[in-house]
Design a protein that fits this description.
mainly alpha; 7 helices; elongated
Length: 283
Amino acid sequence: MNEVQKRYSGGAMLLHWVIALALAGQLALGFAMPKDASGFQLYQLHKSIGITILVLSLARLVWRWRMGDNRPPPAEAGITGWLAKAVHVGFYVVMIALPLTGWALVSTAPISVPTLLFGTIPLPHLPLPAGLNEAIEESHELLAWGGIALFALHVAGALRHQFLIRDQLLARMSPGGSGVFAMIMGAAVVALGLLVLVRVGNGVDESAAAQIASAAAEGGTAPAVDESNDAALPEGEPTPDAGSDEVANEAVETAAPTPTASAAPTATPSSGPPPQWTIQPGG
């Protein structure tokens, strides 16, 4: 086997493809999540996947350090070799900084929202000042766009080696030494991202506002909000419970007939600081 075809270890391959699938789905989910009460569980899932990517990325760095000189050598030199290296370094920055800024974003939000990873493991907030929230939010979004740009460059580079240079570079990340596996997995990564983006973006999970408006239009009662959604969310996240009441009021005012003068006055909510909510284990 020549130097170009020298393959990565099995552990490196496994981490590469698992992280690639998770990152593609995570980026798509982040852009497509609904911004109302129906998105609460998706936000919890988004945070859970993000921390998983962080752990796997750190594990891959450790694996890379332990492998040392056993890694395949660079496939190219010059500007293209430098660009390939820059893309790899950029991926490590995104895979680590994106989850960390997301964690910091939740930790500095105006309203404290507990996080249970996959509904089981509590994730404590980072001790950061709330004044950093806006800057962290912008950084998180920029890193997400950077991740998409890196994905495009990485895929373009892989296709260039496979079909233009024909140096069997994809075999380095394929068990058995065949580039076919890498092509199939690459297509699966892209397909997963597009599937999440389309399905979530098209509202597979109907928003609470749509459900309430439908019930009001039919003269029925508004559906109950699941207790697992009873948490106030930080800026950019939906606000179940108190937020759901606001959504419900807007939806009912839109769908219900205009009240007459004899109608009973609506009670105004009391002012004051927002309540602190907790999520029960398994909620």
